Structure formats: structure tokens, C-alpha cells
Amino acid sequence: MEKFWNYIRICHVCKRYELVSTSLLCDSCKNQLLHESDLSQKELYLDLGFTVYNWCHWTEDNDPLLRPIIYALKGGYLKQAIYELCTEVSLHVSEAFQNQPILLPAPSKNKNQKDHAYIIAESLAEIFNLKIINAFERVNTSALQKSKSKNQRKLPNLKLNSDLTLTERKSLLNPENNLLFIDDIVTTGSTAKHAFNNVNKHYKFSAFSLFYRPLKFNDD
Ligand SMILES: [Zn+2]
């Protein structure tokens, strides 16, 4: 009985029960998602000084499809779903991972916790056989976050992780290494830009996000 329920899931988008092949979506929603990904330009030039790769653009048109998926992934506990998604990603954005980059996940809110960006990085590391360095930690901006003026948002929101080993630091600064910053969503790229600045604008730096949100819409 227990086994049976392991194969029945509610699709996070259409809320239908289905015998599913993935742990997040029914086949019909999955195919829609893959279609959206196919329409997206994978390499973005946002004038940041490095390339941003992405898998799927999150727009007003596909918002009803993508929002429930993104919110489910943000929970961070859907490890299996993230792994499945990253397997799809690996088929469509392989150029981002070709040069054996070291993966640098966006830092989690709580330093000792692995959140969604880290889980995405872990999945990609496994699929492409890559190394992860937990290179960054958040700058404590709790006082600043209460007030959301534009100027304050531009303040650095991350810095180098104070727990880095000497070997890790050397790896980050080694000009031979390719570095790939990993996040779930990129909008303006400002977090990735702060990461870039923290590794001394390493010239083999690029960023990858599952989703790129070109325009702000209905933001809550
Ligand atoms: Zn569905």
C-alpha cells in the first residue's frame, strides 16, 4: 500500500492526481514546460561583465505554468524534483557546463542550511561531475531589509564565506579555473554581480539560473 502511494502525486501546476514519471509535474505540464524552455534564449548578455546562462524565461505569458513550479522548488525540500529538472536542463544548456566549471551556489539565508540554490548546484554537480565550493555567505542586512528603498537594495548582499579553506580560496582565485555561479532565478543579475566582484572579477566567471525573469510583473 505504501509503495503504491509513492507513485501517485499531485501535479504542482494543474493539481491533478496522476501516476507520474516525475515527482513534480504531470506529463502534460512537463511537456508545456519543456516547450517554454525551447523558446528561451539560453545565453544572456545583461551587460554585467560576464555571461548569464538560463534554462527558461519566466514571463507574464507563462506565469500560470511557471509560478507553481518555482514556488514548489523554492521550498527546497523537493530534492528529487530539482534533480529531475536539472537532468532536463543538462540536455538543453550543456554549454554552460562544458568547461568543467566549479559551481558556486548563491548563498542561503541561513549559513548552515542548504537551500534551493545549493540543491540545484548539488544536482548539477552530480550530473556533470563537477566540484562545488560554498564560496559566499550573505551579508547581514536584516536592518536594511525592513526598508526597501532602491539604494539599499543595491548594497552588497553577499561576501566571501568566512569558513572557506585556504585550498578553496586558492581555487577561487586561480585564473585557470572556470567559475559558474548558480541561482534559481536571475532578474537583473545583481546577486551574481556581487559574487563576480567578490572573486575579483575573475575573467572565467559566468552565471547560470534555472529561470530568467526579464520583466517585473505581479510581484508579491
Ligand atoms: Zn499537470
How is this structure best described in words?
By secondary structure, this protein is an alpha/beta fold. The longest helix is centred in the middle third of the chain and has 14 residues, at 79-92. It contains 9 helices and 9 strands. It is globular and about 50 Å long. It has one domain (41-212). The protein has helices spanning 2-5, 27-39, 63-74, 79-92, 116-128, 142-145, 150-153, 166-173, 190-198, and strands at residues 8-10, 17-19, 43-44, 51-57, 102-105, 136-138, 158-160, 179-186, 205-212. α4 crosses α5 (116-128). Bound molecules: zinc ion (ZN). The site of zinc ion has 8 residues, from α2.
Helix content: 25-40%
| Intertermini distance | 40 Å
Number of strands: 9
Which geometry do the CA atoms define?
globular
Please indicate the count of domains.
1
> What structural category arises from helix and sheet content?
alpha/beta
- Output mean pLDDT: 84
Low-pLDDT sequence parts? none
Largest β-sheet summary? 5 strands, mixed
Radius of gyration of CA atoms, rounded to a whole number? 18 Å
Oligomer: single chain
* Strand adjacency order, main sheet: 3-4-9-8-5
Q: How much of the sequence is in beta strands?
A: 15-25%
Bound small molecules, by name, code or SMILES, are: zinc ion
Number of helices: 9
Order of helices and strands: HEEHEEHHEHEHHEHEHE
